[in-house]
Amino acid sequence: MSGKVALVTGVGPGTGSAIVRRFAQGNYAIAMIARSGARLDELARDLPGTHAFAADVTDTRAMDGVLARITRELGAPEVVIHNAVGAVFGNFQEIDPALLERNFQVNVMALLHLVRRTAPAMIAAGRGAIVVTGNTSALRGKANFAGFAPTKAAQRVLAESIARELGPKGVHVAYIVIDAVIDLDWTRKMRPDAPDDFFIQPRDIAAEVWHVAHQPRSAWSFNVEIRPSGEQW
Description:
By secondary structure, the chain is α/β, with parallel strands linked by helices. The protein is built from 7 helices and 9 strands.
């Protein structure tokens, strides 16, 4: 295939799907990666130009195969969005250390492996964008975020290291901090009395991902923070 190719990990019913829809509107061929193949197949049926690749981002061997297929079938991705996330909540005495390690594999190691495999083609082309979706845990560690915040902070710092390396080579790397509760069915049930403007909309997150991925070279962002107007910060 010819044309622009985007790769999105963590394509779930919220932010991931919204990002896919936004890039589909922008006439990208989109490689969607998630563990749930059924969800991806349904989205691929609804959106022309989208392609399902079921894989666990922590399985490096499986990801090697998937990335090879994507390049062979669609072309080398010009935009890579790491939206997959591993999370567990509780204080340092309560969390299962194995789950913290699992979160580190999803949030940090999967990003490292993904960029190591996709960046060379971007460097060769002299262009490309890598966007990582994060949240406030990348900036601070609250008591009940001991199983999550350390991995998101490490993810942000890794992304910054990558950005400093790839920027001079023509590849834009950015980290988007989503300082908000995302509007999903389960978050609505958790906050049934919250007004609509308490939540951030997945489509609006996707719009900012699109914007960051297409910034002009003279004004690239790295640290980007988005929040609804009513969010306390």
